[in-house]
Amino acid sequence: MPAFTATAPGKIILFGEHAVVYGQPAIAVPVFEVRARAVVSAGIRLEPGTIRIQAPEIRLEADLARLPSDQPIAAALTGVLQTLAISRPPACVLRIDSTIPIASGLGSGAAVTVAVIRAFSAFLGRPLPLEQVSMLAYEVEKIHHGTPSGIDNTVIAYAMPVTYQRRVHPGGSFDPVLETFPIPEPFEIVIGDTGIRSPTAAAVRSVRAGWQAEPERYNRLFDSVGEIVRSARAAIDAGRVESLGPLMDRNHRLLQEIGVSCPELDRLVEAARAGGALGAKLCGGGLGGNMIALAPPGKSENISSALRYAGAVRTIRTTIQ
Ligand code: PMV
Questions:
Q1: Residue 200 clears pLDDT 90, i.e. is over it
Q2: How many angstroms is it from 25 CA to the middle of ligand 1?
Q3: Quick check: CB of 24 below 6 Å from ligand 1?
Q4: Residue 288 — left, alpha, or beta (φ > 0 → left; ψ -120 to 50 → alpha)?
Q5: What are phi and psi of 5, to 5 degrees?
């Protein structure tokens, strides 16, 4: 039996994080410079039905049967087996590696999950369609995040730019409304990592506490973010790439007011602007993790150096296309 390999990219949220949890649209794009990879091969020497998981980067080597059901990799595998109604899978080994930094807003958890679901369902001879991969990954995201909007699993499963919105129903359930779209005019983004690991769930919880304490103020902030997202999407569609810069700056100011920036993120955002960026903002959950800057043509090297000088532990240059 051959080995089945699947990879999944990292992602950045260009506009709209946090407000997306409250029903506003957001725009996310894949980042192919980093990726998670899952390889499933037959477990020739294993007992029938054994699924061995090897993820050296998180020092995990265990059989599925021994992992708690809420362990994210176990949940992804079990989700596939349930979806396909397979109770006795052939023995296999799942090996996972990833170059996506953990807990820093680049979607590492969702990318591992998507790669695992795709490789495992292919190994079982029934590769799942994208929509189902994304839905299963959403269930696993709930373990990572608590109340995820669904944007991470969507952009990573589809591996395309996406505008995402959740249409929330009165009882709390929601329909994901997603649209993948082309980028008529490519643009360069520099990603800067503060080096501060910041679990998204904690940032999402702190925003919820703020929203519960001051619902009207937070709803106004979320509405303003939504307007920026709509303007940004119109600018991308029209190829007016430079106008994304000021929109990023405004989005960052709103995220500061929402309470998810921190001095290290603000310092990198300012350094990027001083280094020639057209605009910059924090990216993802915030309170650490990564920021992004829009680079005019030929400037990304300068911006990257400015970010490192200001304390970024890593920079990634990516072309959005
Ligand atoms: O930290 P990340 O990149 O996984 O960002 C999550 C984005 C939030 O809007 C903060 C949460 C969500 O579920 O959409």
A1: no
A2: 13
A3: no
A4: left
A5: -115, 135
